[in-house]
Amino acid sequence: MRVKTLLRTGSGVWVGVLLIAGLLFFSSGNTDTTIAYWGSITAQSTLLLPVVGAVCGAAAAWESARLRESGVAAWAPVRGELRIVGQRLAPLVVDGLLGIVVALGLFTPGDAFGLPGGPDAAVLVTAVVVLLGHLAAGYLVGRWLPKLLGPALMLVGGYFWGFWPAALAEPSWLRHLNGQGVGDCCRLDQEPSLRSLGATAAFSAGLVVAAVIVVVLRRTGRRRLVATAASLTGLACAIALAVPLGFGGEQARDRALLQCTGSRPQVCLWPEQQGRASEFRRWVKDADRKVRAVGVGPAERIEFAEPVPSRESVLVEAATSGVRLDPPACAERPYATYPGDEAALVIHPWLALTAGVAPDALLDWPSESVRRAEEVRRLPADAQAAWFARNMRSVRDCSVKPDLSPAAYAHRASS
Question: What stretches pass through the bilayer (predicted)?
């Protein structure tokens, strides 16, 4: 069939228009959560995959119903039914691929094209398999349901199948079957989970194989049984891969990509951060010198979660890297009292101020805590070191109350 005739008689053109409009609508306000890292960008673009699947699946049901009503399979066998179905669905495949590309573009920040690497190929291939799965399901639904009911069912059902599992607390693994498992990925030290992507691909591939069996074995009485077996096999494989994941759709990134320089502390950067390596090292060295003057030692190795962090966030990360402010095990006991929270609320901004962060940049901390930290900063260095050592005891031991008043340490003079 000529391409011009296929486009004129099929639903590909208007489906493409509706799909792009739908993607623009659903992307509004949802594309500002990515970080400038291709793993995160590609993974989060799958948040729009349900729109692509629902629209294309509904169109596939419409085309399938038209083929059934025309009785084209009973005409002279110039073309096989699989070829006929493939030709009718080909424009929808193109629409779906265009939708995947547009979704990726909507989630791509303007400065991403200077980043090393490119879009995550595994995520994009899985998205294509999900698209084919929706087309296969739409074809099967349109084959057996009335012409208007099939597309409506695929549009509504595809939408809920795409978005609903991610909103469920249980079963948490269900989100890995519909393509949303990696939607919240990734930090800079993470990448999309191949296990999650495999579960998604296995489920959708089962639907594709089932649809092909129904078409190819049209004159075989057991085609429904074989097709059902194929789809259930895909489902079983998908569940086996997804169940151990729970909510998580990410895995650790290859540590070989991390480049470390210097010593005490080492500054370790991912490829996306290498363009500002000199700034990272200068800021870390500055923070290291200042916090050591008051008796605090940074960690031996320091990494950063943001591709392009601000100077303030680098200083804070360096200053707090060697200090554990998490509640100890004693605070996790039932009915436990933990006075260390009060100390941690002041120690953290004190470390940030010591490293060189301006007070007005500490907006995430209570103003009272920042004010108290500024009072401590006016003490001599050895008095600040004594204040820190005393109140860290409260952070680590639930039985020790903090003593945060700077006046209690003011008598200590610098040597």
Answer: 12-29, 35-62, 89-109, 121-141, 148-167, 197-218, 225-247
